[in-house]
Amino acid sequence: MTEIHPTAVVSPLARLGADVQIGPFCVIEAGVEIGDRCRLESFVTIKTGSKIGCDNKICDHAVIGGGAQHIRAPENPGTIVVGDRNQIREFVTIHRALHAGEQTIVGNDCLLMVQAHIGHDSIIGNNVIITNNALVAGHVVIEDRAYVSGAVAIHQFCRVGRNAMVGGQAHVVQDVPPFVTVDGCSSLVVGLNLVGLKRNGFDSESIRELKNAYRILYRSNLTNGEALEKIRMDFAGKPAEHFHTFLAPSKRGFIQARSRGRQRPLHEEPVKLRVLPGEHPESSENVRQAG
Hints:
By secondary structure, the chain is an alpha/beta fold. Helix content is 15%, strand content 23%. The strands form 3 sheets. The chain has an 11-stranded mixed beta sheet. A 9-stranded parallel beta sheet has the order 2-5-8-11-14-17-20-23-26, with no helix packed on it. The chain has an 8-stranded parallel beta sheet with strand order 3-6-9-12-15-18-21-24, with no helix packed on it.
C-alpha cells in the first residue's frame, strides 16, 4: 500500500507504483514516474522529466531532475532515468539532460553518498559507488563497478572505466582506464585496483593478464596506439581486452602513470656530510657539497 505523508506535495499527474512511501515535505512534480517499493524520506524533490525505477531509497533533501547548470539551457530539456535498487543519500543532486530527447542515466544497485552531484547527460553504470562531495560534470560516463572517492572532481566529457578506483580529492581531466587505481594526491594512475578486482570475483589468471596488459600500456616503450593494439591482439576475448575497447575511442586521452622514481638500494650507505670548520653539520652548504 502506498503511503504519502500529509505534508508531502504530490502532483495528481505523477505516476506512483505499488507500496511507495513518501515522507514529510517531499515534492513530486507532474510527469514523474516512481516504481514499486521506493522509499522517499523527508524533503526529497523529484522534478518533472524524472523516471525512477523500483526499490530505490532516496534520502533527505535529495533533488532529482533539476535543470542543467548551463548558461544557455533550453526551456524544453531532456529527461533523467534512474534504475532499480539504488541508494541515493542526503543532499544528492542529479540533473536532467540538456536537450530534449537526451537522457541522464543512473543504472542499478548504485550508492550515491552525501552531497554527490551528477551533471546533465552523464551515464552512470551498475554497482557504481560515488562517495561524499564528489562532483561529476556533464556528459561524463562511469562504467560498472567503478568507485569514485570523496571530493573527486570529474571534468565534463571524461570517462571512468569499469572496476576503476579514483582516490579522494583527485581531479580527473582525462579518461580513467578500466581496472586501475588513481591516486588522490597526484591524480595519476598508481597500479591496478587489486582490492576491487578480487572483491568482484576476478580470478588469479584474469588478474595476471590484467597486470601484463597494464605493463604493456604503461611500462613498455610503445606508443599509446601501439600498446592498445598489442593488448587487443594478445588478450582477445579476455577481460584485459577492455583496456583497448575503452581507451581506443578516447577523445581526451587517458591518465598516465605516476613515475616510480629512483629508490636507494637497501645496502647503499647514506651520504656522509663533509663538515667545514666552524659550520653546522646540517647547513645548506654542507648538503650541497655532499651532493
